[in-house]
Amino acid sequence: RKYNIAILGATGAVGTRLIEQLEASTIPVNQLKLLASAKSAGKKLTFKDQEIIVEEATPESFDGIDLVLASGGGSVSHKFAPEAVKRGAVVVDNSSYWRMNDNVPLVVPEVNEADLQTHNGIIANPNCSTTQMVVALEPIRRAYGLSRVIVSTYQAASGAGQSAWEELVAQTTAHNAGEEMVANILPVKGAEKHYPLAYNLLPQIDVFEDDGYTHEEWKMIHETKKIMFGNKNSKSVKVTGTAVRVPVPVGHGETVYFETDPNTGATVKGIQKALSQAEGVILEDDPKTQLYPQPINAEGKRETFVGRVRPDLENDDSFHMWVVSDNLLKGAAWNTVQIAERLVALDLVRVPEGAANKFIAG
Ligand code: 2RA
């Protein structure tokens, strides 16, 4: 069987990587449609040496489509995902809009592929900073249990989009030339105040919630619980953290403190073994030779890199690790295409009867 595929948001930082990842994937593609906003319609992109003209997305764009890979932002997915499902297409959505919906599985194949079995037409791709963390935590949980996670993130500018990446580059150039740094995008589009990221750190990713956490921190807490423990409000694990934007173009870094179950006898060696044997993980951990993951080495790669595994010196059964991955690949485009590959392999590219009604408001 060959599939008619549509990429929604085809011209963005993630969208262009969705095309690349689809080209490199095992999915048999019959036809590829590239969809974007009216502003981007008319652009020409290539897929397998074939030039494709980007079209403006409309509900009718999804007629005859089997699989939609979406990365056009929450409002676009809110509007078009139900339209696509109504027309029999399965949607793998990279936006945050559907992630917490009880009718939508939130999936990282290495962690909870089984959740694909009960999809209703929309499958959500987790937030980039959540994805790399659960890829590293899951093999540890399976071997030693997991009761607590405290994460600090060091997130690349490209996580906030192509324009944020370009703003960082422009600020760096300006600063090096002794000129004023201009900030119009970071820490978050639409916020009242903007600050330079170059030569700086910004402890704000997305908007602030009333409890003082940012929406990015909220996502990491609830998405981790839903993916690893099946419930966005699970009490089986305590998760908290701080999300920080750093002047790196691509590649998120994360320091992760975690507590294992006391009666499982976790050790650094045992954790390193579990990580080195885990799907999608590459262990880079040898202080003697200064071996540890770095964003510049992870960029362009699909894997999640883990190092600096060491015990907490004052809490039993507790450890620290350093996790790095390309936020545009495993954090977005590759995980999305990987989900699509698994749907094809499991013959799950089909919309259950009446499923669309679960997403049509009112
Ligand atoms: C960010 N994780 O880094 C968010 C969305 N990609 O901005």
TrEMBL record:
One of its GO terms (molecular function) is aspartate-semialdehyde dehydrogenase activity. Substrate binds at residues 155, 245. Residues 4-119 form the Semialdehyde dehydrogenase NAD-binding domain. NADP(+) binds at residues 11-14, 39-40, 158-159, 327. Pathway: Amino-acid biosynthesis; L-threonine biosynthesis; L-threonine from L-aspartate: step 2/5; Amino-acid biosynthesis; L-lysine biosynthesis via DAP pathway; (S)-tetrahydrodipicolinate from L-aspartate: step 2/4; Amino-acid biosynthesis; L-methionine biosynthesis via de novo pathway; L-homoserine from L-aspartate: step 2/3. Homodimer. The active site is at residues 128, 252. Phosphate binds at residue 99. This is Aspartate-semialdehyde dehydrogenase. Its EC number is 1.2.1.11. It catalyses: L-aspartate 4-semialdehyde + phosphate + NADP(+) = 4-phospho-L-aspartate + NADPH + H(+). Keywords: Amino-acid biosynthesis, Diaminopimelate biosynthesis, Lysine biosynthesis, Methionine biosynthesis, NADP, Oxidoreductase, Threonine biosynthesis. HAMAP family: ASADH (MF_02121). It is an enzyme of class 1 (oxidoreductase).
